[in-house]
Automatic annotation (TrEMBL):
<comment type="function">
    <text>Pyrophosphatase that catalyzes the hydrolysis of nucleoside triphosphates to their monophosphate derivatives, with a high preference for the non-canonical purine nucleotides XTP (xanthosine triphosphate), dITP (deoxyinosine triphosphate) and ITP. Seems to function as a house-cleaning enzyme that removes non-canonical purine nucleotides from the nucleotide pool, thus preventing their incorporation into DNA/RNA and avoiding chromosomal lesions.</text>
</comment>
<comment type="similarity">
    <text>Belongs to the HAM1 NTPase family.</text>
</comment>
<keyword id="KW-0378">Hydrolase</keyword>
<feature type="binding site">
    <location>
        <begin position="152"/>
        <end position="155"/>
    </location>
    <ligand>
        <name>substrate</name>
    </ligand>
</feature>
<protein>
    <recommendedName>
        <fullName>dITP/XTP pyrophosphatase</fullName>
        <ecNumber>3.6.1.66</ecNumber>
    </recommendedName>
</protein>
<comment type="subunit">
    <text>Homodimer.</text>
</comment>
<keyword id="KW-0546">Nucleotide metabolism</keyword>
<feature type="binding site">
    <location>
        <begin position="180"/>
        <end position="181"/>
    </location>
    <ligand>
        <name>substrate</name>
    </ligand>
</feature>
<feature type="binding site">
    <location>
        <position position="69"/>
    </location>
    <ligand>
        <name>substrate</name>
    </ligand>
</feature>
<feature type="binding site">
    <location>
        <position position="68"/>
    </location>
    <ligand>
        <name>Mg(2+)</name>
    </ligand>
</feature>
<dbReference type="InterPro" id="IPR029001">
    <property type="entry name" value="ITPase-like_fam"/>
</dbReference>
<feature type="binding site">
    <location>
        <position position="39"/>
    </location>
    <ligand>
        <name>Mg(2+)</name>
    </ligand>
</feature>
<dbReference type="InterPro" id="IPR002637">
    <property type="entry name" value="RdgB/HAM1"/>
</dbReference>
<dbReference type="InterPro" id="IPR020922">
    <property type="entry name" value="dITP/XTP_pyrophosphatase"/>
</dbReference>
<feature type="binding site">
    <location>
        <begin position="8"/>
        <end position="13"/>
    </location>
    <ligand>
        <name>substrate</name>
    </ligand>
</feature>
<keyword id="KW-0479">Metal-binding</keyword>
<feature type="binding site">
    <location>
        <position position="175"/>
    </location>
    <ligand>
        <name>substrate</name>
    </ligand>
</feature>
Length: 194
């Protein structure tokens, strides 16, 4: 079985990606090789995913899969976008959610549209000139208060209209069928020749 490094220290993201890969690879965490992460200097999800995957290839010597994802809120012109994880300047998930709620205070439901975006980048080696890039989007809206205990990040604020609940209220198996990450991974699986 081919080895693959997942280029993330985010345990929630790692858990989701491992589940979505269906045992196709022997998965290793970047944490086995380094505790440092590359500086995300890209101006897009695609650029940052490639930066992370390339870094993981360099430190591990193995093929690497990186995910750059975030939340884009229509009313905020796509913010927090690529800054989703650090939206509140080290406030973590709870701080990010508080800041988002403050930014949207008084905004009616009709203007609270949002989408989760995930870009996956798979590199065979550090100098790979043709990374495989896959994108998934999950449309919903932002709630007025957190709901649910599952998931991570903005999941408690992300309302999934077709399920009539927040992402954090979904069972992980259902979330892994509907999410932006699941959609990107579905595309990646179609592109992989194993």
């Amino acid at each position: 079985m081919k080895e693959l490094v997942l280029a993330s220290h985010n345990t929630g993201k790692l858990r989701e990606l491992q589940s979505l890969l269906d045992g196709r690879f022997h998965i290793r965490s970047i944490s086995e090789f380094t505790q440092t992460e590359p500086e995300e200097t890209g101006l897009s999800f695609i650029e940052n995913a490639i930066l992370k995957a390339r870094h993981a290839c360099v430190v591990s010597g193995l093929p690497a899969l990186a995910d750059d994802s975030g939340l884009a809120v229509d009313y905020l012109g796509g913010a927090p976008g690529i800054y989703s994880a650090r939206y509140s300047d080290s406030g973590g998930d709870a701080g990010n959610n508080r800041k988002l709620l403050a930014e949207l205070q008084g905004v009616p439901d009709a203007q609270r549209g949002a989408q989760f975006i995930c870009v996956l980048a798979l590199l065979q080696h550090a100098d790979d000139p043709l990374p495989i890039i896959c994108e998934g989007r999950w449309h919903g809206r932002i709630l007025h208060a957190t709901q649910g205990e599952n998931g991570f990040g903005y999941d408690p604020l992300f309302y999934v209209p077709e399920q009539h609940c927040s992402s954090a209220e979904l069972e992980s198996s259902l979330k892994n069928q509907l999410s932006h990450r699941a959609k990107a991974m579905h595309i990646l699986k179609q592109k992989l020749v194993l």
